[in-house]
Amino acid sequence: MTDHIRSLVATFGDLPSNDVPEADPLRNPLDAFRLDVARQLHSSLDIPVEKAFEAVSTASKVADFSVAFPRFKLPGKPNDVAEKAYRDFQPSAYIAEASHQGAFVHYKVNHETMAKLTLATITELSSRGEDKGDAPSASKSKGSIKSAYGHNESGKGQRMIIEFSSPNIAKPFHAGHLRSTIIGAFLSNLYEANGWYVERWNYLGDWGKQFGLLAVGWERSGDEAKLKEDPIKHLYDVYVEVNAAAEADPSLHEKARVYFKGMEDGDESALALWRKFRDLSIAKYEETYARLNIHFDVYSGESQVTKQSISSALDAVRDSEYVERAENGAMLIDLTKYKLEKTVIERADGTALYISRDLAEAKKRWNLFKEKYGAGFDKMIYVVASQQDLHLAQFFKILDLSGFEGAKALQHVNFGMVLGMSTRKGTAVFLDKILEEAQETMESIMKQNEDRYKLIEDPQRVAYVLGESGVKIQDLTGKRHLNYEFSWKRCLSNEGDTGVFLQ
Ligand SMILES: NC(=[NH2+])NCCC[C@H](N)C(=O)O
User: What number is the ipTM of this complex?
Assistant: First the structure.
């Protein structure tokens, strides 16, 4: 199978791969380059190849690889050892040059060899994966990488849920949702490429008093045609209108309360309207996610958490030593011992809260996996903005204190804020508008060179792909936990570490 790569590698020079069990140059081209460095260190300093291989770091800031010599604990000063390794270095088909700096030697790869080997490996492994039909788990999901290149089976047999994006119906899809979407999709692909079974869940903000208000607003300014055309935008407009109106006329809030009560009590006509809003919004979201090559396996949401499941989740902590009753009858849990403050988990009137829904939903997902696969998930990741750090830490802790078996499998992946993201025309952000704007702006940049523009076969498609990549890559470039300033210029520039440059 890999004969082709084997003989290609041989034309560049033999590698001591048998001495390093974890190196796999026939699947991972980078290993071939690290092995060459290891081979050279072995002959210069007589270090075992395996140890030398481990020391070749790919996290170098100044070159492709760096080796820190103090770690070998060889006789003599590390600087002198490094210098000897540097002096003995011979440029090869793999490593083009080396430089010496204190106790370090830095190495740069031969780009031609890197390109040849990488492309050959991709071709080889993908054709192999396809004709045996065994590209790990890629077949299952629409959006994932078809080739077996970059896949391994280290996570085989492990199952996870990853919850991400999770926008709120009738409110804008803000930059935080975009970031959650991008990071969540990235992590899903990564786990899948490592052999995990991954379910992508979207937990919509689709329940609560605001849906009562939305229904009141719908009576005032709802428009069927507009709803069909762009449900997310129209529901938002209706919501903004009714909120403003309710400022002046508080009786609208009372109406909203009554309406939502009807929904909670299962009044079918109230639910029918809500269901229509939800279904149309999901359909529109799916379209937009598809533009980003992202799909979800499950659209859950706050509405999908039943009253019974909430009360049984609360029953599990009711008698705990951490629980307190407020004067008005609300139930609180005191997590100050864990530096997680106190929080209300049940209102005085018994109605559910964001946190109690999360408690019940986590258990529901666990039980669902048990039913389907005979065991709960091995991991469940929540990709949610750092503003909700406390919330997530609280509900994880409550689940843990209540003896929930899955508590250890929960993980919060947080992220900093995206500042200043807006379309050029307005302030409210809609994901589809951002993507359209990325495409349009990209196309106008392309048009600046008319002769070249004419040569492109499908310029709109190209602008679309470049725009999308720009948005995604700008997001992934910054450190995850830091805030960053959204910039159209950086997003669509073809210089530096940008999506356009990458494409
Ligand atoms: N399980 C969760 N609480 N996930 C996060 C949901 C995010 C929420 N819909 C928001 O927009 O703020």
Answer: 0.99
Any atom of ligand 1 within 6 Å of the Cβ of 184:
no
Q: What mean pLDDT do residues 236-240 have?
A: 93
**What does the alpha-carbon distance between residue 206 and residue 91 come to, in Å, rounded to a whole number?**
61
- pTM as predicted: 0.86
- For 283-320, how does the pLDDT look when each residue is reduced to its tens digit (9 = 90+)? 999 999 999 999 999 999 999 999 999 999 999 999 99
Residue nearest to atom 11 of ligand 1 (CA): 167
- Measured between alpha carbons, how far is 230 from 421 in angstroms, rounded to an integer? 21
The structural domains of the chain, ordered by start, are 3-115 (3.30.1360.70), 159-316+352-413 (3.40.50.620), 423-502 (no CATH)
Q: Answer whether 301 contacts ligand 1 (Cβ < 6 A).
A: no
Cα of 346 from ligand 1 centre, angstroms: 18
How far CA 477 is from CA of 233, 295, 400, 453, 502, in Å, comes to: 30, 22, 34, 28, 12
121, two tokens: 């490996």
Tell me if 438 sits within 8 A of 487, measured CB to CB: no
